[in-house]
């Protein structure tokens, strides 16, 4: 949770700090990111940063939350008949941001969260949980419309979608990009395809 102490913060300064934190984290890595570097890059004093946030993790979490407001493509459309098309657009936007802007922040926060249960809870509640919920809701819409089935539990499908991103971010063995989004969407379409004549399906239980 971000701090609320002190004078009302300048919106311009706040945005500069959040933007700078993500940019420096992606350029230099999470471990080398410091409050001093963020303050210098944003053109504010360190005490200004500390007045609003207790640490770099809190800054990055707020920055990640704010991306949802800045990038409409990260939000699930209210209505769409083309669920798979919306799914690919959502994953493409998410993966491209991870490749260019958020990857180092996500990996660094997740690493620290393994040793800090409070940070883990904050990260799940503010960043990971809402993105999982949005993707699951989109898949559920397809199931409700009959264009998809739930032969594979939807929570497991969500794990598959975002798990591919996390595995590549951690392993650096392949890119996280639009091509991955397309391939993951194709995989999900295959897993959740409605029954067709002559095609056997086996229900998966977890």
Account of the protein in words:
With 206 residues, the protein is mostly helical. The protein has two domains: 1-70, Tetracycline Repressor, domain 2, CATH 1.10.357.10; 72-206, Orthogonal Bundle (Tetracycline Repressor, domain 2), CATH 1.10.357. The protein has helices at residues 11-28, 35-42, 46-52, 56-70, 83-113, 117-145, 154-171, 178-191. Helix 2 (35-42) crosses helix 3 and helix 5 (83-113) packs across helix 7. It is elongated and about 60 Å long. Mean pLDDT is 90; it is low at 1-6 and 197-206.
Beta-strand percent range: under 5%
Largest sheet geometry = none
List the uncertain runs. Answer: 1-6, 197-206
How many separate domains make up the residues?
Answer: 2
CATH architecture of the largest domain: Orthogonal Bundle
Quick one: overall form?
elongated
- Main CATH class of the largest domain: Mainly Alpha
Q: What's this model, at a glance?
A:
The protein has helices spanning 11-28, 35-42, 46-52, 56-70, 83-113, 117-145, 154-171, 178-191. The protein has 206 residues and is mainly alpha-helical.
